[in-house]
TrEMBL record:
Organism: Paraphaeosphaeria sporulosa
Family indicated by similarity: Belongs to the PHP hydrolase family. HisK subfamily.
GO CC aspect terms: cytoplasm
SUPFAM superfamilies documented for this protein: PHP domain-like (SSF89550)
Pathway linked to the protein: Amino-acid biosynthesis; L-histidine biosynthesis; L-histidine from 5-phospho-alpha-D-ribose 1-diphosphate: step 8/9
Catalytic activity annotation: L-histidinol phosphate + H2O = L-histidinol + phosphate
First-level EC class: hydrolase
Name of this protein: Histidinol-phosphatase
Molecular function, one GO term: histidinol-phosphatase activity
Amino-acid biosynthesis in keyword set: yes
GO terms (BP aspect): L-histidine biosynthetic process
Amino acid sequence: MPYSHHSHSGQFCGHAKNTLLEVVQDAIAKGFHTFALTEHIPRPIEDFYPEEADSHTAESLAKLFDDYLVEAELAREAYASQIKLLIGFESEWIRPSTHQIIQGIMERYTFDFFMGSIHHCHTIPIDFDRATYEKARDAAGGTDEQLFEDYFDEQYEMLQALKPPVVGHFDLIRLLSDHRDADFKGMDGVWKRMQRNLEYIASYDGALELNSAGLRKGLAEPYPCSPVCLAFLRMGGRFVMSDDSHGIDQVATNYPRLLQYIQKVGISEIFYVDKEAAPNDSRFSAGFSSITVDNLLQLPFWTTAR
């Protein structure tokens, strides 16, 4: 009975599949203990994803997020005896107005937690396709190293402004780069920025997600790569598990490989957001609990996991 802190459904995300209820039902069928619903926040029209441009206005995208929260609460009630559903969102960090959007959402609603992610640098998507990645790289000066530095600087701005309880796909920037399976060797400026960001996350007891989607997308390791995990471990940092699923065909995908990675890196304890734990952040209605990796290994989930 493992845990995932990051998911999307085609009902509320244009680049995902299946309804939210179908995703929840699949998570139950696969034996999840805790499964988080974290649809994307609404964005102004200049920051729409390509698949949203023909189907939404800024107003309809905002309403879609409101509808998501209603559906999520209904699902939590309906399946309370079968699974622990967490209700949150996945942030963006694109331009100054993004912070205002997030503040507005958190003033209107109470969440269990949220996933603090960035998918843009210089306001350009960096994980959509190679062409847009190259545009972002050109905007940074033309090299992967320059773009990596800018990405981690923008991530630091997000961390300082939001203090997300869970930080999503910390090193997503490497996905479409020429250094996708590298460990940032020789990039001293990048390492300095990553170290700074990790120290800041550890300072407020934030957690890094171990995101198996990196494996699904062809990376040799999940997000974050092992040197990042080892650095965060030395700081006493906490880790949670995520599949970052975008439909039922991705729920729990590569979780056995994620478990092997956890063991390889030397992580001995996995944390998870828990509504029964006292919050350590007054903004949220849930805290964190943990399970040792030794006990995690004994769960029956692994006999059927993909």
